């Protein structure tokens, strides 16, 4: 019997994701022995500072990657939106799982939706992308940094520290917390463009042919296509969580609809585009769209956005 060790963060959502992947692997490889090994990442420990100020998304992956490179683990399950575009030598993106709903959601105990929030309402999110889009619609809102796992964020909302908070709907659905508060408004993809790869699990593993063969059963072709477009867009713009960028590719029949937005975190200036392309000719769609944005001044705008952090 072959044994594989899955490196995972210790949060409830990370453990759910790892258990989910473990179950899928066992369904396809009944004789496989799978062990979950928990790690605390720097991103889990530093909760009083926005990610954009302490190094970005790689803070959630470095310890897991180090464990794989040491030989202490064979694979790690990530929210793909937390994975940087570049992988350390010896590690690869082995599989991209089927996407959950990528939408963002507004949660509140007192107010049913964004338009119902009073002037100056305290809204919790650390995401510059969400802040930009919220302030574009409601410049009167008081956007306050909110770090921590889903449960701790919900607890702060319930204690009255915030009038509303914004979270990815996928995580709430996976943990069955979508009914945990009185009101939840799921934003449409046009109302708030998600982060690249939001709602998708990415399987990072050691570059080993035998292991990659075992993990191939986890890969979803449509999610590969969508995430490639989104990640190519971010990579070409050289953007991360230090700047406000949203990008979503949605397969609709034989077409793919791409929504993208970037700008200043206060919502005062932004570039936005929606386009629909044939699915069979979208190989370079993310890169091409990024270059269109660059021609419109995206790099200069993002440089200004970064100086605002």
Q: What features would you describe in this structure?
A:
With 309 residues, the chain is α/β, with parallel strands linked by helices. Helix content is 34%, strand content 25%. The protein is built from 11 helices and 13 strands. It has helices spanning 12-28, 42-45, 51-54, 62-70, 128-137, 150-158, 169-174, 209-215, 221-237, 285-295, 298-307, and strands at 3-9, 33-39, 75-79, 91-96, 104-108, 122-124, 142-144, 164-168, 183-186, 201-206, 245-252, 255-263, 270-278. Strands 2-1-3-10-4 form a 5-stranded mixed sheet, with helices on both faces. The chain has a 5-stranded mixed sheet with strand order 7-6-8-5-9, sandwiched between helices. Strand 6, helix 5 and strand 7 (142-144) form a beta-alpha-beta unit. The protein is globular. The termini are far apart.
**Annotation field: number of helices:** 11
Radius of gyration: 19 Å
Q: What order do the strands of the largest sheet run in, or round the barrel if closed?
A: 2-1-3-10-4
Q: What would the principal axes of the Cα set say about the shape?
A: globular
Compile the SSE list and pairings:
Elements: E1 3-9, H1 12-28, E2 33-39, H2 42-45, H3 51-54, H4 62-70, E3 75-79, E4 91-96, E5 104-108, E6 122-124, H5 128-137, E7 142-144, H6 150-158, E8 164-168, H7 169-174, E9 183-186, E10 201-206, H8 209-215, H9 221-237, E11 245-252, E12 255-263, E13 270-278, H10 285-295, H11 298-307
Parallel strand pairs: 1-2, 1-3, 6-7, 6-8
Antiparallel strand pairs: 3-10, 4-10, 5-8, 5-9, 11-12, 12-13
Helix pairs in contact: 9-10
